[in-house]
Write a structure and sequence with these properties.
The chain is mainly alpha-helical. It has 7 helices and 4 strands, in the order αββααααααββ. The strands form 2 sheets. A two-stranded antiparallel ribbon has the order 1-2. Strands 3-4 form a two-stranded antiparallel ribbon. The chain is elongated. It starts with 13 loop residues before the first helix and ends with a strand. Its main location: nucleus. This is MADS-box domain-containing protein. InterPro entries: TF_MADSbox, TF_MADSbox_sf.
Amino acid sequence: MATKRLQDTRSYSENVRNSILDRRETSLFKKAEELSIFCDVEVAIIIYRPGKIQPISWKSTSLAHDVLTRYLSFIEFKRLKKLVTHEDYLLKKVEKKEEQISKLEKMNEANEMKILFNQLVEGKSIDELDTREMKGLLKLFAAKMDKLDERKKELNQPPNPPSNKGNSTFSASPMEESFNDPWFIQTKATLGDGSGIEPKPKEGNNVNVEDDGHSKDLD
């Protein structure tokens, strides 16, 4: 539910302010009754109007006096433990909004650097970048290199030795399949490790693979 924008009513006449106060009181009492029913708590409201001696109490003067008396009977530590002032409430709201804005700014910056990276790959000159864009790209490159190093460590781990239980036939391990993966071969060539490695052709029963990549049936 969207909140209405508050207006400064100090410049209004007294009759207008009293009319607004009456409507606000009715709405406040309704919310307090809903809170007391839904949450099963005791709620009391005491409102002092400017220039009035007797306050406005909800639900009744006796009930509001009883709730206030029991509240003041607690020691100050317990009374202030869960006390929230309007200023503290607004400060928490502001901090939460600032945190959300900061997260959005970081996400937007990351997406912007990805787009800029793709533009450089497509031929954009690096001389056109400013200092902020250069720093963002350096962070992006560092993150990509970290992911690439993690991938290399995973692929360089030795495969698990086969188990001797029974005479079961085991298929190729995921690590062995990864060694024949085109991405792995290209990455190794780019990093200078294993440059020029080509995937070994699979041997078949009736097929001979020649150097030109075409198969020839064996007679």
